[in-house]
Each structure stands twice: as C-alpha cells, then as structure tokens.
Amino acid sequence: xxxxxxxxxxxxxxxxxxxxxxxxxxxxxxxxxxxxxxxxxxxxxxxxxxxxxxxxxxxxxxxxxxxxxxxxxxxxxxxxxxxxxxxxxxxxxxxxxxxxxxxxxxxxxxxxxxxxxxxxxxxxxxxxxxxxxxxxxxxxxxxxxxxxxxxxxxxxxxxxxxxxxxxxxxxxxxxxxxxxxxxxxxxxxxxxxxxxxxxxxxxxxxxxxxxxxxxxxxxxxxxxxxxxxxxxxxxxxxxxxxxxxxxxxxxxxxxxxxxxxxxxxxxxxxxxxxx
Length: 275
Description:
Elements: E1 24-33, E2 40-50, H1 57-76, E3 107-112, H2 135-147, H3 160-183, H4 188-195, H5 200-213, E4 215-217, E5 220-222, H6 230-239
Parallel strand pairs: 2-3
Antiparallel strand pairs: 1-2, 4-5
Helix pairs in contact: 1-2, 4-6
C-alpha cells in the first residue's frame, strides 16, 4: 500500500504574533584598573534576566555567559583598525585581541521567570541578546567611577593606551581643581601650566623675576626678543593663576608709581615708570 514510501507521521503548524517580545534584566560589574599599565580587569560580573519561560535552562545560561564574553571583548580589546590608506591592521589574531579564560571572570547568572510573555502560548521571550547588550556600558561606567571622571569613556574598546590617556586627564583635572580651590580661581592658561607640572607659586615667582629684569616703557615690555606688550606679559601672569594672594604686586616693584587691578589684569594692571 505504501509502495516505496517510508511509514511515518508528520504535522506542521505556524504561530504569528503582531508584536515582539521584550525581556528585561540588569548587569553589574566590578572593574579594577592599573594606573601604571592602563589595564582594566573585570573582577566580578552579575547577569540577571527575566526571560518569561526557560525551555532549556542550561542553554539559556550558556547564551547569557557567551554573550557576556563577546561583549567583554568589544569593551576592552576587540577592534578593527585601519591605517591612513585603508589597509587593515587587525588581520591576524596577534593584532585582533580576543578575551581568553584569563580575562573572563566568573559570571554570576540569575534567570527569573516572573513575567511570562502574554504574546505567545509558551510565555517565552528572547534571551540571546541579554548577555552582550549592556556589557560595554557597564564596564565604561565602572571605569568612569574608578578614575573619578564621569563620562570619560566615549569610545570602545577601552584599550590600555586609551585608558592611560583617560587616567592622565583625570589626574590633570584633579590638580587643576586643587589649585583652583587653593588659589581662588585659575584661568585656562594657568590650568595648562599646572597640567605641565608647574605650580602656581612657581609660575608667580617666575613672572615676578621676569618683570624685575625687564625695562618697562609706555606700557610695553622691552628687553625681551618678542617685545611683548605689557598686557600680554600680564596675561602670562594670569596664566599662572594670579587672582588671589601673591608674593608681590607691580606696585611693589622698584620704580613703580601706581598699579590698579591684579597682575593678571592686562588692561588695568600697568606698571608706570617714574616721570
């Protein structure tokens, strides 16, 4: 009766929905950074996810952890790089770094089934994207918090070279903030001097010594190769952050007749030679 056909029984059915399902979850990471090398190490990571119904719990956990490892690579090391001619610089695994077992921490996974989806008979929701989507943001936020510079990470991956740059920027910002608090306000050029390692007190002393050596005539500083006007010379004083107490003022210099404003006041603070 069946002829050459194999006996068997088959059935086929379709289910269509008008709307996608959306799972939700949370990710938390603890990241340690090495200020000397710029290396970021994820010490602990938690993935908590509600997927509606877990048909195969082991498979679900494997998808979440695998997604996390992929996100970890994109956050810290994996990058397609090209030179100025468009030639790829990440053509081998020696240049395209991948996270290994050494870089991957033990991931804590919490899967809940508290909110089954009403959009399908099984109440299932997607799970594969949950492991990777938030990893980069979590690690970037942890690095921002570690270096004390909110919003510092604006690009992934955070390679050691880029993290070293961010650490230096954070240190410079802290030095400027400390100087600003101590000296009552430091201008942007002054902050540049401080970032270059020059203290406000040292810059003030340098300025005072330079003014002592200069011959002043009709509001111009003579005796310097570029013949800077007094306003520009005073601007250099302002760059040193001279807005509060200082060792001396132009009025205290030899031969000074009067001075109004501060050393940093380019238009007001002028040292007049005696007539």
